[in-house]
Amino acid sequence: MSGHLKANRPPMGWNSWDSYGTTLNEQELLANARFMAEHLLAAGWDTLVVDIDWYDPTARAHGYNENAPLVLDEYGRQLPDPERFPSAANGAGFKPIADAVHALGLKFGAHMMRGIPRLAVERDLPVKGTAYTARDVADLDHVCKWNPDNYGLNQSHPGAQAWYDAQLDQFAEWGLDFLKVDDMQTPFHSEEIAAYRRAIAKAEAAHGRAISLSLSPGGWVSTGYVDFLRENAQMWRISDDLWDRWEDILQQFARLARWAPFQTAGHWADADMLPLGHIGLRAERGDDRDCRLTPDERRTLLALWCMGRSPLMVGGDLPTSTPETIALLANPALREVTAGSADNHETVRERIFARWDDENSYRGELIVWAADAADWADGTPSAHPNGRYAALFWTGDDDYELGGNIELQSIVGIDGRDDPWTLTDLFAGVADGAAPADVRIEGEGADRVIAGTIPSHGVLWIALDRR
């Protein structure tokens, strides 16, 4: 697999966490797979990921279980709970589900915790292919602070790499295309990350299947790790879990601005899952609900993630989400901008006051992003050759009238300021319950501006093309 560029565009897919927490079953997984294939694959959504504890038969909503009777094979490797995933019975693992997902034209992935199951250590099960046992390779001093399933691995012991090698060999044999590996970055376990990458490379060579690696959670991950992360992973989280709260979206503006200059084909900083649609069915956080973000906040979320070139992994149960949500996800601009943009960066961030001399009159922040339209890494031509993208965000609680403070030349460049430009609303025609955007080009020549009204917590997301 050495010549294969994995994740040449930011991955787009579905993850079960926001809807089902630790409790997803086979029927629900396949229902989401079929729905994605029918309604969203054409728009770029192509990956299904089973999140945490698919190997715990006692899994429940709102938390994890101490001393859970995990389903393990004779080498201590996790197996899907056959009660929730009947096709996994008799040692079949996730292969029947992976085959079904692949038949739909989709990719299949699963979540895994760093380390080795405590139950394997208690039973002192053998590490496959070695003379060592789970007790030999376990590190009891470096365990996850929030999940009780595993011990760490002692990476100074030769059996530790063998444990990961055997685990990844099984995943590749099942047909997994994607792995979300948790408890890797907060704190930052560089030796574990490198060991996991080596195991993936060995499994890819043995089975001829590319496996993308996504690291979680994010915490306050430093950009100082970027070279190491690019060497070892295709995705890495840059925040803790994000939910359907405006405060969570606000936090991501600064993080994505910090990471945007480091985004490159095959290696993506990840602003976390999109809590859009029908979530909380049996999740860790909150009750059964439709996403609590307003229609304008949902547009802001998607435009920010796309301008920051973050992966897009939606968390809502697709078959039971509203038509408005599905229309929003089916917008071709999502893949167009994440896959086909370059030099993405924040250009403006200004705190706005109703009165310049009254510090108590703060209204919100005006934040502007810009990017060049570009061909995709796989050679797909740009949707806007020689064009530009821009997103104008407003964080205030009332609408914001732009006036003349965003000059067109600040988006298209001084050299292009006299060229004829047309504007396209990238949310135009998306029937998601939000009002049509009020955005336009006003003025003449070099004096032209982007004018319009940004709704509360909203965005004007546009493409600009030379006529």
Tally of strands:
21
Taken as a percent bin, the fraction of beta residues is 15-25%
Q: How does CATH name the architecture of the largest domain?
A: Alpha-Beta Barrel
Rg over C-alpha atoms, rounded to the nearest angstrom:
23 Å
Could you name the CATH class of the largest domain? Alpha Beta
Strand order within the widest sheet?
Answer: 10-9-8-7-3-2-1-13
In whole angstroms, the N-to-C terminal distance is 43 Å
Largest sheet: 8 strands, parallel
Helix content: 25-40%
Number of helices: 13
Overall pLDDT, averaged?
A: 96
General form: elongated
Number of separate domains: 2
Estimated structural class? alpha/beta
| CATH topology (level 3) name of the largest domain | TIM Barrel
Catalogue the unreliable spans.
none
GO molecular function: alpha-galactosidase activity
Keywords: Disulfide bond, Glycosidase, Hydrolase
Catalytic activity: Hydrolysis of terminal, non-reducing alpha-D-galactose residues in alpha-D-galactosides, including galactose oligosaccharides, galactomannans and galactolipids
EC number: 3.2.1.22
Structure at a glance:
The protein has 467 residues and is α/β, with parallel strands linked by helices. The protein has helices at residues 17-20, 26-39, 95-103, 118-123, 134-137, 158-174, 190-207, 226-232, 246-259, 295-307, 323-329, 333-339, 409-412; strands at 12-15, 47-50, 107-113, 116-117, 138-139, 150-153, 178-182, 212-215, 235-237, 268-270, 278-279, 289-290, 312-314, 341-353, 362-373, 388-394, 400-401, 421-425, 438-442, 449-454, 459-466. It is 27% helix and 22% strand.
